[in-house]
Structure formats: structure tokens, C-alpha cells
Write a structure and sequence with these properties.
single chain, 203 residues, 8-stranded mixed β-sheet, 4 helices, 14% helix, binds magnesium ion
């Protein structure tokens, strides 16, 4: 399986990072070795002094598809969860300044924390989902999928022009405003609505 990630999908987050609003989805990948299973601890790697959390709604692909029309895109995912796109921000800043690809900062081992999934049918409107992250019991980041620049269906349609989507692939749909650094011993609790989906520590 593969992990497809969308960058810069919430306007206020683009502002906090001083990026430009994109004309089409910004896409990068993480390998399957990046998955951090639910509630396992995240160990800060030796090559970075600054790892940020990015809390994101994730979707799981449920059928094979290529060049999917936007109006059929909703048929290609059936489950929704929450993930943390861990980012070595110091490494990313260096790559960005040099005009180089981001993978070392984004795709390293355990950089994709993934929750259990909830069937899509349980949501009245997938483009109106509240989600948030608490760190050490304090609210640190919150968002709603209505604020996405590119909707889940638009993302699926777009990426499928380039990559064949396969059953079990996961899409990280972008982070809202409020990203920040994690520190050793932090406790991260991620919620969809009021439902706790993840509870784990930084080591
Ligand atoms: Mg992200």
C-alpha cells in the first residue's frame, strides 16, 4: 500500500507557513514503512531537532481506480480516520531552501501515525467533520474538513490521474492551522468530533 499526502490544503495553514495558495493539490508520498500503528509511541529521530505534528483527516481507498471522475470519487473510499503527518521541519526547511524534494523530512519511519477507521456512512457530511489534537490535555490544533481548499473527492480525482489507487491506500488530506513542535514525554490525543481516536506519547 501507499500513503498519499496533500500539502497546503487549508488556507490558514498556508498563511502560518508563508507559502503560496496552490492552483492544484500539492501531493507527496510516504512509504508503508512510515506507518505508526495506533497508540504506539513516536520516537523523535536522531537526524532532527524539530519535529512538528500535523493533524489530518485520513481516508482509506476501497477499490482499484485510475483517472477517476470527480463525480464518482466518493465510491473509491469507504473509511475515515485521523492521522498525524510528523514532519522534520528543520530538515524540510533545508530541502525547501535548496529546491530539493521533501521526502527525508516527511517520509521517514513512523512519520505517519494512523488511527483506527470509522465507516464513511457514519458521517452525515464528510466535508463537515470536526477534528482536533490535544497535547498534555490542552487543545493544540483543531479544524473542520469544510475548510479544505480541495475536497476529498477532488483530491481522489486529481491523484488518480497520476497514480493508480489501490485497496488499502491511505490519503492524508492536509493539516489545518496550528501545527507545532512535539517534545519528549508529550501525550498526544487526537479526536474526530468527541470520539478519541488516538492516544500516545512522544519518546
Ligand atoms: Mg501534512
Amino acid at each position: 500500500m501507499k500513503i498519499i499526502c496533500v500539502g497546503l490544503n487549508y488556507a490558514q495553514h498556508i498563511g502560518e507557513m508563508s507559502w503560496q495558495r496552490p492552483d492544484e493539490p500539492v501531493i507527496f508520498l510516504k512509504p508503508d514503512s512510515a506507518i505508526l500503528r495506533v497508540n504506539n509511541p513516536f520516537f523523535i529521530p536522531d537526524f532532527t531537532q524539530h519535529v512538528d505534528y500535523e493533524t489530518e483527516i485520513i481516508v482509506r481507498i476501497c477499490r482499484l481506480g485510475k483517472c477517476i471522475d470527480r463525480k464518482f470519487a466518493h465510491r473509491y473510499y469507504d473509511q475515515i480516520g485521523i492521522g498525524i503527518d510528523f514532519t522534520a521541519r528543520d530538515v524540510q526547511s533545508k530541502m525547501k531552501a535548496a529546491g530539493l524534494p521533501w521526502e527525508l523530512s516527511k517520509a521517514f519511519d513512523n512519520s505517519a501515525a494512523v488511527s483506527e477507521f470509522i465507516p464513511k456512512e457514519e458521517f452525515v457530511d464528510v466535508q463537515n467533520i470536526d477534528f482536533h489534537l490535544d497535547i498534555n490535555g490542552q487543545l493544540r490544533q483543531s479544524g473542520n474538513t469544510r475548510d479544505m481548499i480541495f475536497s476529498i473527492d477532488e483530491i481522489i480525482s486529481f491523484v488518480s490521474q497520476y497514480f493508480t489507487l489501490k485497496i488499502g491506500d491511505i490519503i492524508f488530506t492536509g493539516t489545518p492551522v496550528g501545527v507545532g513542535k512535539v517534545n519528549i514525554n508529550d501525550r498526544l490525543e487526537a479526536y474526530i468530533g468527541t470520539r478519541k481516536m488516538m492516544d500516545f506519547h512522544i519518546k
